[in-house]
Amino acid sequence: MKHLVITTLSALALLVSCLLLWGTGKLWIPVITIVAIYHIIIGYGSAQIKANYFLQSINKGQEGVAFTFDDGPDENLTRKFMDLLEEERIVATFFVIGRKAEASPQLLKEIHNRGHYIANHSYSHSNYIGFFPFGKLKADLECCNTIIEQAIGKRP
After folding, report:
1. Would you state the torsion angle of the CA atoms of residues 150, 128, 34, 55, taken in this order, to the nearest 10 degrees?
2. DSSP SS3 for 83
3. Is pLDDT of 56 > 90?
């Protein structure tokens, strides 16, 4: 919700700037400023999950270090990571992409059976996911949740 508001306000600010300053030779100043601020806000919202910029996040657990692996599962690397983690008795969270998980349900079961957590990293992992309308974003995340649930028998 915050992302939609910031994007809308930034677009309106750009439009007003264009209307007021077109032809003055000074339009570049507000345009660069608005675009820079917009990107700073998006960067902050992406880096600070607790800011709840894109979605409401759930933050629970103990303070300390968490091992996470994104963009899998990968048939070549995931088992190697799990073997290393097992040697050190470390539990990790694997943030899986739905379309990859859909192709490797057995690997998801193995991740789960080895005692690791599986979390949703979207179905599509689109570069434009930050611009998805709410309904499309929700459907993308729900699709990934369903694939994970079908593979391991529980919802992420």
Report:
1. -10
2. helix
3. no
Token digits of residue 42: 């998006």
**What would you report as the CA-atom Rg of the chain, rounded to the nearest whole angstrom?**
20
92-96/117-120 β-pairing:
parallel
pLDDT at 59: 66
The Cα angle at residue 106 between residues 126 and 66, in degrees rounded to 5: 60
Looking at the chain, the whole-number percentage of residues with pLDDT higher than 70 is 97
Q: Are 151 and 126 in contact (CB under 8 A)?
A: no
Q: Is the separation of the CB atoms in 96 and 119 below 8 Å?
A: yes
Tokens of 74: 């990968």
The one-letter code for the residue type at 124 is S
Residue 112: other Cβ atoms inside 10 A? 17
CA atoms within 13 A on the CB side of 41: 18
Structure tokens belonging to residue 126: 């689109």
The CA distances from residue 115 to 29, 72, 90, 98, in Å, are 54, 17, 9, 20
Are the C-beta atoms of 107 and 80 separated by less than 8 Å? no
The DSSP call for residue 133 is -
